[in-house]
Amino acid sequence: MTPASGGTWDADPDLGEVVVDEQTLERRVRELGEELADAYRDRPPLLVGVLKGAFIFMSDLARAIRLPLEFDVMAVASYGSGTTSSGVVRIVKDLDADLTGRHVLVVEDIVDSGLTLSYLRRNLLARRPASLEVCALLVKEGRQQAAVDLRYVGFRIPPEFVVGYGLDVAERYRNLPDIRVYRGPEPVG
Ligand code: 5GP
Q1: Single pTM value for the model
Q2: In angstroms, rounded to a whole number, what is the distance separating the alpha carbons of residues 81 and 58?
């Protein structure tokens, strides 16, 4: 498929430079899929997507993992304002699946402070999975407050607020096909 140009996004004054372009995303997701297919060859995983940010990444990643697998999703909200997370996490939608004895692979969009992930990890481990690993598309360099045990990482990026490929600001930009710096006003709420 010929990559579409940035279209209307290129003219958006709230968007800054491209941090990861479409082709690079596609290539890395394919690589991660191959790595995961190898790692989970003998123990098909249950993919747990963290909504909403991970939905596009999870859908591309799942198709790149050439293994039978199952999905579930959960939604978390982190109390905090605008573009920073407080680390106090609330489960807005819980999983349907029972994790007991399952090989769980959590699919996350981005790890910033790492507080959301460390909460999630504790919460999911309490459900007694056979194994629990995390695959995060993006990790911000030098920002993690909590020790995060991340087995699979797409890209390490500079500590700037980014949007696109599932990531939003006030629900905008999730369908931007690449990842760009957000330079607009802080959203309220
Ligand atoms: P943490 O708890 O690691 O500080 O933050 C994790 C959550 O904050 C992510 O799952 C995501 O929802 C949000 N977040 C952190 N950094 C960014 C960013 O640069 N852009 C967007 N759109 N969300 C972010």
Answers
A1: 0.92
A2: 26
